[in-house]
Amino acid sequence: MRILHTSDWHVGVTLKGRPRLDEQRAVFAQLADIVREERPDLVIVAGDLYDTAAPSSAAQKVLYSTLSALRQTGAEVVAIAGNHDNGPGLEALREWAHAAGIHLRGRIGKASDHIVTGTTESGERWRLAALPFVSQRYAVRAAELFELSVADAESAYADHLRRMVSALTQGFGADEVNLICGHLTVVGGKVGGGEREVHTVADYAVPAAIFPASTGYVALGHLHKAQKIEGPCPIRYSGGPLAVDFGEEDHQPSVTIVDVTNDTPARIREVPLTAAVPLQTVRGNLGQLAEAAESGIDERAWLRVFVTEPARAGLRSEVADLFPRAVQIHIDPVLRADATKPKERRSGRSPGELFGEYLTENGHDDPAVAALFGELYEATQTVAAED
Hints:
By secondary structure, this protein is an alpha/beta fold. It has two domains: 2-272, Metallo-dependent phosphatases (Purple Acid Phosphatase, chain A, domain 2), CATH 3.60.21; 279-386, no CATH class. It is built from eleven helices and 19 strands. Strands 6-5-4-1-15-16 form a six-stranded mixed beta sheet. A six-stranded mixed beta sheet has the order 7-8-9-12-14-13, with no helix packed on it. Strand 7 (115-119) and strand 8 form a beta hairpin. Helix 8 (286-294) runs parallel beside helix 9. The longest helix is centred in the last third of the chain and has 20 residues, at 367-386. The protein is elongated and about 80 Å long. It starts with a strand and ends with a helix. InterPro entries: Calcineurin-like_PHP (IPR004843), DNA_Repair-Maintenance_Comp (IPR050535), Metallo-depent_PP-like (IPR029052), Mre11_N (IPR041796), SbcD (IPR004593). One of its GO terms (molecular function) is endonuclease activity. Heterodimer of SbcC and SbcD. This is Nuclease SbcCD subunit D.
């Protein structure tokens, strides 16, 4: 059978306040094209469908239309909740999704609730254990946390996940393709930026050994960097379909295609998502940035710019004119006052003098800024007197 594995869609994500739904629509349209071309029997979306637990109506429309488009290709579709999702909210849609031919799992229930089975057109049977994100608060009872040390609490979480996976995989047999999908951190996985750190620290890491060797493929979500995990069976993070922040700008968004049978090893390859808008960081002084603006900048990219010269009035505006698609501009002066120099006394000095000293100490010695401060200070003092 053939599987298309994707995850961490983060529908509705913004970049420094800029909406990205149009970007996501383009990426998901390409994803649907890939599904039509590759003709997988099964599409797995391994969690973090939304970027927030309270998605906008526009984000919900994008998600439902995308899942429906994938299902209309003829592929079976399985989607699970991640740590960014409202698990109970997605679970409430389970019956609706089932009617649409989509297998949706939002939160933990009975073990039997998380088993999805099917048969490909060629008659190959498959069994999938679908495990949504499990928080430590849910996995470890409060009474146990009160009595255990930190190390014991971490062990209890991993052990709890091991027991859950064991229960879910009890029915794995040799005559069908055995699959697992989950949204979790596995030891050895590399964090690529964008993930919520609280859910990727050691408290939430589980060993790859929890997955049985009888598993044909483990489709994971949560870590945004596409990567293989060493373990007793094929284990992989597909990575996200677009970079959600600048910590992921070196990622090539992709989906994973898996060909596997019940008695042959999984063959895995990546298919890039070229519709994803890249993120790029640019550094330099104003002259260097002007040269970069002429060449070396992807015209589609969202930019983060570091200006390596002292701040002055109007500098940020000049940089913004050079890079209309800059969503972050950091003035990063290379000239700093000597930190070992004794600071001058402050008592008895005027606000203008103190502000001027602050500018000098931080490499922002600009007469225009100092003059503007003086005007603003005078205006505020005048208003205070009138009041």
